Amino acid sequence: MPRQKKLPKNYPHRYCYLPCLETQLRVPKYIVRIENYYPDGRVKNCGWQVRYCQPSVYFSDGGKSPRPSLRAASAYLASIWDGEKNVYKPRTTARRTNPIKEPGIRLVCRRRSENLVEWYVEAMSPLPGKASRRVYVGTDRTKTMKRLQAAMIKARSYRDGMERALRAEIIT
């Protein structure tokens, strides 16, 4: 009989509190809890959903404890797991052009009021969901080329730091 695959030891988990058990369960990344109820409060269906790749797969509790369905969902995730998806995009796409022709750095304007527009240079994170860093340039009246160049230097250093951190995370 073939040996069942397991998720790596350093695989990220979180703790999910379940009121029905009055306890927390350790849930792997890409597995979410689905609970649907009728309007009167009765349970319609409950289970775990694996959202690692398309199509997502649902594991029902079947009116029993959620632990067996979580084990089944974890086993399924381990069977299809082929590593973290690399979503790093080093180049800009054609449709996303901005005055700054550097990947991951863009010029942003933010309208504070009818008469006040602020300008920033934003260093975007190479991973979606991670926070980007903004460097203030000035308002329409106070922005100068010298301030823009200084903000660009800071933004480049932020972006380089984010890329180094990502490469170090991918290697380990």
Can you walk through the features of this model?
There is one protein chain. With 172 residues, the chain is α+β, with helices and mostly antiparallel strands. The chain is 24% helix and 30% strand. It contains 2 helices and 8 strands. The strands form 3 sheets. A 3-stranded antiparallel beta sheet has the order 3-4-5, covered by helices on one side. Strands 6-7-8 form a 3-stranded antiparallel beta sheet, with helices on one face. Strands 1-2 form a two-stranded antiparallel sheet. A hairpin with a 5-residue loop joins β6 (105-111) and β7 (117-123). The radius of gyration is 23 Å and the shape is elongated.
Binned, the helix content reads 10-25%
Which geometry do the CA atoms define? elongated
Largest sheet: 3 strands, antiparallel
- Widest beta sheet: strand line-up: 3-4-5
Strand content: 25-35%
What's the total helix number?
Answer: 2
Low-confidence stretches: none
Radius of gyration: 23 Å
Helix and strand succession? EEEEEHEEEH
**Distance N terminus to C terminus?**
32 Å
**Structural class by helix and strand composition:** alpha+beta
Kindly report the average pLDDT value: 82
Number of E-type strands:
8
Strands, helices and their partners?
Layout: E1 13-18, E2 23-28, E3 31-37, E4 43-50, E5 57-60, H1 66-80, E6 105-111, E7 117-123, E8 133-139, H2 145-171
Antiparallel strand pairs: 1-2, 3-4, 4-5, 6-7, 7-8
Q: Can you give me a brief rundown of this structure?
A:
It contains two helices and eight strands. It is α+β, with helices and mostly antiparallel strands and 172 residues long.
